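A reminder from the course coordinator: this example appears on the midterm review sheet, so study it carefully.

Given structure:
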C-alpha cells in the first residue's frame, strides 16, 4: 500500500514511495508552479504529474507503472490542525482489498450459515422439545383419563354399595323403630291389663250409683215429685260423664301416639297417669304427694309417651312398697335453666348396687312376674323426646327416678 501527503495544489510533500516526492497528482499551471517554487523554496523542482488517475467517485484509483496499470482503493482524509488544503492519502491494492473483501464475505457467509444452522438446530430442538412435551402431555392426559375413569367406576361401585348399605340400614332402622313402637304399644296394653281391675272398680261405682238414681227417679215420677226426679237425672248425667272420662283416658292411653310432639303442660301428663292408676293407688293405701302450686312448665312431648313413662315409674313404686308401712310416693317438679325435671320418689326398700347397675338393661328385673322392659322402654321414650331418664343417687330409703326434658316458653 502507498501513503502520501499532498498540499492544496496536489503536490506530494511526503510519501512512502520516494520517487513520488514533489510530484503532482495532476499537471500544474505556470502560476501554480511558480507559487510552489516560492512556497517550497525549490527552484529546480519540475513538479511532474504522477501516473495516477482517480475514478469517477467509485473510490478506486489507477496507477500506470511502466505500462502496467494497477488499481488501488483510495482513502483520503483532511489533516486536522495542519495547513489548510493538506490531505492524507492511503492507497491499498484493489486485488488485496478485493481478496480481503472476498475473505470477509466468505467469513461472513460462513458465519451466516453457521448462525442459520444454529438457528435451525435451536428451532428444530425447540420443535422436538415441544413435540415431546405434547406427546408426554397427551400420554399424561390419556393416563389421567384412564385413572379418572377407573376411579369414577370405583366411586360409582362404592356409591352403589353405600347406597345399598344406607337403604339396608334405613330399612333396619325403620324395622327397629316399628319394633320399638310395637314394644311400647305392648307395654301400654300390658299396663292397661294390669290396671283393668281397678278401672272396672272405678266404673262399677258410678254404674251402681246410676242404677240407684234411676230407680229413685222412677219412684219420684210415680209420686209426682218431678223436682227430685230431675235432680236424680242430673246426678245420672254426672255419673256418665265420670265414666266417659275414665274410658276416654283408657282409650287415649291405648292409642298409638303420633310421631310429632307438641307443647304439653307437664301437670296434664301427671294427672293422666294418676287417673289411670287411681284405683290401684286407692286400694294400696299409698299416699301421693303432688307438686305444689298451679303453675305447670311446658315441654315439647307427646302426652301419651310421657304418661307411659310416668305410669311405669308409678307402677314400679307401687310394686316396691307392697307390705311397706306408711307407703308414700312424691312427685316433684323443678326447673333449671331450660330444663324441666320430673322426679318420682318412693319410700320403699330401694335398690341394691347390682340391681341399680342392671336397671336399664333389657330383661333385667327384680319382680317375680316382670319382663324387665318397662324402664328400658321408658328410657328410650325419654331419649326420643330429647331428654333422659335416670336413677338418682340413693339418699336414704326408697328409689328416686328423674325425667329430664327441655322446657319451652
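Designed residues:
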Amino acid at each position: 500500500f502507498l501513503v502520501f501527503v499532498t498540499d492544496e495544489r496536489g503536490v506530494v510533500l511526503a510519501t512512502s514511495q520516494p520517487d513520488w516526492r514533489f510530484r503532482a497528482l495532476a499537471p500544474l499551471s505556470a502560476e501554480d508552479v511558480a507559487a510552489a517554487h516560492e512556497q517550497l523554496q525549490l527552484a529546480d523542482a519540475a513538479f511532474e504529474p504522477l501516473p495516477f488517475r482517480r475514478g469517477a467517485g467509485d473510490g478506486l484509483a489507477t496507477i500506470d507503472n511502466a505500462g502496467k496499470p494497477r488499481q488501488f482503493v483510495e482513502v483520503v482524509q483532511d489533516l486536522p490542525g495542519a495547513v489548510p488544503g493538506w490531505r492524507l492519502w492511503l492507497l491499498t491494492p484493489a486485488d488485496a482489498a478485493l481478496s480481503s473483501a472476498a475473505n470477509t464475505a466468505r467469513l461472513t457467509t460462513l458465519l451466516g450459515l453457521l448462525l442459520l444452522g444454529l438457528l435451525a438446530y435451536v428451532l428444530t430442538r425447540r420443535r422436538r422439545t415441544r413435540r415431546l412435551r405434547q406427546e408426554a402431555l397427551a400420554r399424561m392426559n390419556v393416563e389421567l383419563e384412564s385413572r379418572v375413569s377407573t376411579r369414577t367406576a370405583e366411586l360409582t361401585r362404592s356409591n352403589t354399595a353405600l347406597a345399598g348399605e344406607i337403604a339396608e340400614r334405613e330399612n333396619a332402622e325403620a324395622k327397629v323403630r316399628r319394633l320399638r313402637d310395637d314394644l311400647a304399644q305392648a307395654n301400654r296394653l300390658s299396663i292397661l291389663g294390669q290396671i283393668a281391675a281397678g278401672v272396672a272398680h272405678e266404673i262399677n261405682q258410678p254404674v251402681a250409683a246410676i242404677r240407684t238414681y234411676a230407680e229413685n227417679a222412677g219412684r219420684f215420677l210415680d209420686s209426682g215429685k218431678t223436682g227430685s226426679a230431675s235432680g236424680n237425672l242430673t246426678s245420672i248425667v254426672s255419673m256418665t260423664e265420670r265414666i266417659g272420662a275414665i274410658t276416654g283416658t283408657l282409650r287415649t292411653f291405648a292409642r298409638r301416639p303420633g310421631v310429632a310432639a307438641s307443647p304439653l303442660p307437664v301437670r296434664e301428663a301427671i294427672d293422666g297417669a294418676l287417673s289411670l292408676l287411681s284405683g290401684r293407688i286407692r286400694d294400696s293405701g299409698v299416699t301421693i304427694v303432688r307438686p305444689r302450686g298451679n303453675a305447670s312448665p311446658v315441654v315439647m312431648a307427646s302426652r301419651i309417651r310421657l304418661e307411659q313413662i310416668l305410669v311405669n315409674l308409678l307402677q314400679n313404686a307401687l310394686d316396691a312398697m307392697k307390705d311397706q308401712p306408711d307407703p308414700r310416693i312424691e312427685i316433684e317438679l323443678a326447673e333449671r335453666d331450660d330444663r324441666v325435671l320430673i322426679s318420682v320418689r318412693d319410700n320403699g326398700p330401694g335398690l341394691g348396687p347390682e340391681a341399680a347397675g342392671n336397671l336399664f338393661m333389657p330383661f333385667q328385673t327384680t319382680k317375680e312376674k316382670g319382663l324387665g322392659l318397662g324402664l328400658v322402654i321408658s328410657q328410650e321414650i325419654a331419649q326420643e323426646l330429647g331428654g333422659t331418664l335416670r336413677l338418682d343417687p340413693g339418699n336414704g330409703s326408697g328409689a328416686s327416678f328423674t325425667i329430664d326434658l327441655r322446657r319451652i316458653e
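The mean pLDDT is 79. The chain has eight helices and 13 strands.
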